[in-house]
Amino acid sequence: MVSHQEDHIWQINITPLTDVFLVLLIIFMVATPFLVQEAVKVHLPSSVMGKPEPKSIVVTLDRGNKVYVDGERVALSLLFDFLKNKLSDEEDLVILRGDKMVSLEDAIKVMDIIKRAGAERVAIATEQPTGR
Questions:
Q1: Which residues have CB under 8 Å from 62's CB, separation 6+?
Q2: What is the pLDDT of residues 42-60, one digit of tens each?
Q3: Distance between CA atoms of 103 and 63, rounded to whole angstroms?
Q4: What total number of domains does the chain contain?
Q5: Which of 3, 27, 47, 88 is most buried, taking the most CB atoms under 10 A from its CB?
């Protein structure tokens, strides 16, 4: 005696799974342009929340990649030693003032030197936006 139940071929219905994948694809396609637009729009160095900090050392990097510490010109090769001597227990904050046209790579190099010299905190100076 052969049973009729053995003749059935079982199938998995993947239609709901396909629907879920299509919905997820549509969500990612709609959300991705918003994420990319936020990453591209960079309007530095202005900030509404910026405020001056007391007891700090100001390192300025101008368009020509000349470095100044508290208004005094310092060669980039001597910046580490100069800051190491200038940093004290009360002055652990160094504010980096960089021109808008300075490349990010140059600013990061100066920030690395500042951190290696012993600065506990490094801040980037910004300006208040005009017209508000």
A1: 68, 99, 102
A2: 334 555 565 555 578 888 8
A3: 9
A4: 2
A5: 47
